[in-house]
Amino acid sequence: MKLADGARRLAIFAYYDPDGRVDAYVPYLLRAMRPFCARQVVVVNGFLTPEAQDTLAACTDEVVLRPNRGYDVTAYKEAFLSIPDLSAYDEILFYNQTIFGPVCPLDRMFRDMGARDVDFWGLTRHKGADRASWDENADIPVHVQSFFFAVRASLFCQQAFRAYWEQLPEIETYWDAVGKHEVRFTRHFADQGYVWDVYVHTEDLETYNDYPLMGMPVTLLKERGCPFCKRKNFITTRHTYTTVPQGLATRQLYEYLRDETDYPTALIVENLTRTAPAADVTKALGLVWDTAHTPPDEADCAAVLNMTGTELMPLLVHAAKAWPAGMPVYVLCAGEEVRRAASAALPRATCRTIGGRGPQEMFGALWPQLAAHEFLLYLSDDLPLLLGQFSDATALQTAAEALRPGPCAALLHKDANVGLILPLMPSHQETLTLGLNLPEAADRLTEVLRSTGVQVPVGTGAGIASRGGMFFARTAALAPLAGAVLPDELFTGLYPDWEFVPALAAQGAGKLTAFAALPEQAFNELLNKNSMLEEIERLWATPRKMRFDLIEFRMKGIQDFYYERRYQMTLQQAFSAPLTAKQKLWICLQILMKPETFQKLRRLLHKRDEPAVPPRDDLD
């Protein structure tokens, strides 16, 4: 069935937000689609705030609220089954919030697809696989991807189409939505003789990438006219999937949208900073900037040097003397001896003795002077001692070398979405695990941030931080911290909570965080991390299990077994007591089964999700 000019299209848009809010990228999308639809309905899983409901009502014909059950698939189902007169439409379009765009006019897509003699079509296809990750006994056929697909009257007016939705099994999980609908839909109707196609063909790219829309998005957008990109690109790291995203795909996508299209990337950043942990976005985008080869801009910048002693003062003095002569420098000194030494070394700086921590003074009494400047640089020698006795001079020197005011200002001038730049910290001893204590600190950080009006998803994974909390920032991005009560506990311990605060505050201001490094620093950091990771992996790898995911699976299994036994008996009992038959069987199954099969069995038996953070162990 082809579509004639003036064909009537019904659009069904599935939407969900845990906070009931609607970010600006959604009405942008809906308004762009509206001219091509005779009617547009938004089906909301869950609830909406009054403001969000007004926002959607202003750019669509109807907003339907339903319980948050069954994912987008069930929203599609209920919306379709409630259509009173199918004959009023020539095509029904199903799509959801998991895309950003359009990045180009939609006329061409709808014109080209209207001229094709098909019964249903989609934006892109998945090439299929011999084995599904959620069920090793099931294959994945080639199929239209369900985030954006359309069905013509030649199919949706048939009883077979209605029966498909009426008989759709209950959708309880994301993998249910994939396995019971997305991978089944295309083959189900193709086997009955219905014809399908996709707008963006990627068959020639699938040798290189399993999922070209995510793995090679710029190729699809720039060369093949794809009008949308996936939101998942901006929160998925290269490590998560083998080839998705491919190489620097997400960073290239972001820069392409920012520099070569009219799509406002601020809409993407607004959504990501509200809904995703800052670390996920920074890692997915690969925001590491070279400050050695970036031409400097004139920077309206103030610098704050936090000095707790004189041992590392030469490093801070050396950095300050390389800055522009007119740049105001404030030195916060822990005691008169430090102040006298700093005044002698930096006669043009304003040196003051403080009784508390540097950040407390910076965002307190000193803030009125700092707020008058566009940028703020903060360096500190208040760093936890390595091995309890050695000053961390490497971290301070790395930060001082990377956070160069002129290049940092130039990079922030180029990208209005970034508000904070952190130094790429070196990996040695304690700093290898910098960021891993975020889950343990999450509740404390949330309470502190809430007192400043900042509410962001802290996350349950590793966070982004800098040793000592050093940074270069847009002053406005850290304005929520002005006058905040920063308790002393925020700055204590081997991994102080303060080290996470700047990035979380910038996220609360709707800004991204980037890292800065000299190329030599970045390469040395790569070598350091590789060496340390190889040493750890060598303890767990075997000739038949050399893949990272298998090593990780084995280590997690041992950890789970440890925690399970740790809370059933003492360590002495664990070593001396005989194992039960159940425990022996559990260990044997874990050794013999494939990781995905064992995890499926574990979920089936426990009927619950695994905890995000293992229980606290007093022996740690």
Structure notes:
With 620 residues, this protein is an alpha/beta fold. The protein has three domains: 9-212, Spore Coat Polysaccharide Biosynthesis Protein SpsA, Chain A, CATH 3.90.550; 288-529, Alpha-Beta Complex (Spore Coat Polysaccharide Biosynthesis Protein SpsA, Chain A), CATH 3.90.550; 542-606, no CATH class. Helix content is 40%, strand content 14%. It contains 25 helices and 19 strands. The longest helix has 20 residues, at 519-538. It is globular, with a radius of gyration of 28 Å. The model is unreliable at 608-620 (pLDDT under 50).
Can you give me a brief rundown of this structure?
40% of the residues lie in helices and 14% in strands. It is an alpha/beta fold. It folds into three domains: 9-212, Spore Coat Polysaccharide Biosynthesis Protein SpsA, Chain A, CATH 3.90.550.10; 288-529, Spore Coat Polysaccharide Biosynthesis Protein SpsA, Chain A; 542-606, no CATH class.
Low-confidence stretches: 608-620
- Please tally the β strands and state the result: 19
- The tally of domains stands at 3
Kindly provide the name of the CATH class of the largest domain. Alpha Beta
Which features does this protein show?
single chain; 620 residues; alpha/beta; Spore Coat Polysaccharide Biosynthesis Protein SpsA, Chain A; 3 domains; eight-stranded mixed sheet; seven-stranded mixed sheet; 25 helices; disordered C terminus
